[in-house]
Amino acid sequence: MSDFVSDFWGVYIAVVVIVGLVGLTFLLFSQSKTTVKKGEEVQITGHIWDDDLAEYNNPLPRWWMLMFYLTLIFAAVYLVLYPGLGTWKGIRGWTSVGQYKEEKAVAEAKYQPLYDKYLKQDIKAVAADPEAQAMGKRLFQTYCVQCHGSDARGAKGFPNLTDNDWLYGGDAKTIHTTIAGGRQGQMPAFGAAFGEEKVKDVANYAMSLSGKKHDADRAARGKETFAAICSACHGADGKGNQAMGAPNLTDNVWLYGGTEKTIIETVTNGRNNQMPAWKDFLGDGKVHLLTAYVYGLSNNAKAQ
C-alpha cells in the first residue's frame, strides 16, 4: 500500500473487503435456513443441461455449512491480526519486509563469522579454497545468473566471465570494484552526426580491425572517421581503453554481436549498459566471496 499516494485507496480496499465478508456471511446465513421437510418434494431450480441433467434445490449438508462458517471466521480473525484491510497492519504489526529483515538478521548472525574469516584473506587465496568457491557459486546463482547466465558465459549485452576478455580489467582488485560499485557503460549514438553512409564506413573499418570479411573501400573511408572520432575511446589502434570500459575492437569478442548489421546498429543508436552496485545490498563479506568466485572462473590455473 506504500506505493499509493492517496489514503483513499486504503479505505476503498478495506470497505470492499468488509462488505464482501458481510455479504458472504448474509448469503450463507440465508441459505442455511433452507430446509426440506420429510416427505416434501425438492424443487428444481430450472437449470437443466443435456436435456435431462437437472439442478435441484437441495440444502447444503450441515457439515459443509459449518466449514463455510469456519472459513469466514478464519478470514475475520486473520484480517484483525494481519494486513489485509488497506493500510491496516493488523494488531501483530506483521509485514513481509519485517519478516525478511528478521530472517536476514538470523542468517547473518549465523554466517557472518564465516564471511569475516574469508574477508581477512586475499582474494586469490579465497579463489583457491573449495569451500569458499562453493559459497561464491551459490551467491552467483542467486544474484548474477539473471544477466550472466548459470554458466557465467553471459548473453547479448552481458559479458562472458569465463574468458580473459574484460572491459574494465580482470585482476582481483578491479573485479571487486566492479561488483561492489557497479559500472555504467555508454556508447554514444553517432547516427545523426555521421549519416547512414559514414556509419556503414565506420562499421566496416571496425570489422577490418578484427579480421572480419568487410568492404575494403568503405573500411578505407571509415578509417579517417574512426581516427577523428572513435579513437578517443577505443584508441588509435582500436584496442580499447579499460579505464573507461571501451572495448577492444581488434579481437573477436563482441558484447552485442559482430555482424555488420549489429555494428551498424551500435554505431547508429549507441549502447547503454549498467552493472548494479552490490556492496550496500550484499555487504563486504559476500562481495568478497563473489569477487573470488568470478576471479576463479577465468583464473583457475592461477587460483589453484
TrEMBL record:
PANTHER family registered for this protein in UniProt: CBB3-TYPE CYTOCHROME C OXIDASE SUBUNIT FIXP (PTHR33751:SF1)
Associated pathway: Energy metabolism; oxidative phosphorylation
Cofactor(s) the protein needs: heme c
Residues spanning the membrane: 9-29, 63-82
Gene designation: ccoP
Subunit structure: Component of the cbb3-type cytochrome c oxidase.
UniProt record similarity statement: Belongs to the CcoP / FixP family.
Domain Cytochrome c: 131-210, 217-298
Compartments reported by the entry: Cell inner membrane
Keyword annotations: Cell inner membrane, Cell membrane, Electron transport, Heme, Hydrogen ion transport, Ion transport, Iron, Membrane, Metal-binding, Oxidoreductase, Repeat, Respiratory chain, Transmembrane, Transmembrane helix, Transport
Physiological role: C-type cytochrome. Part of the cbb3-type cytochrome c oxidase complex.
InterPro entries: CcoP_N (IPR032858), CcoP_N_sf (IPR038414), Cyt_c-like_dom (IPR009056), Cyt_c-like_dom_sf (IPR036909), Cyt_C_IC (IPR008168), Cyt_c_oxidase_cbb3_su3 (IPR004678), Cytochrome_c_Oxidase_Subunit (IPR050597)
Highest taxon of the lineage: Bacteria
Pfam family, one: FixP_N
Cofactor note: Binds 2 heme C groups per subunit.
Coiled coil segments of this chain: none
Name of the protein: Cbb3-type cytochrome c oxidase subunit
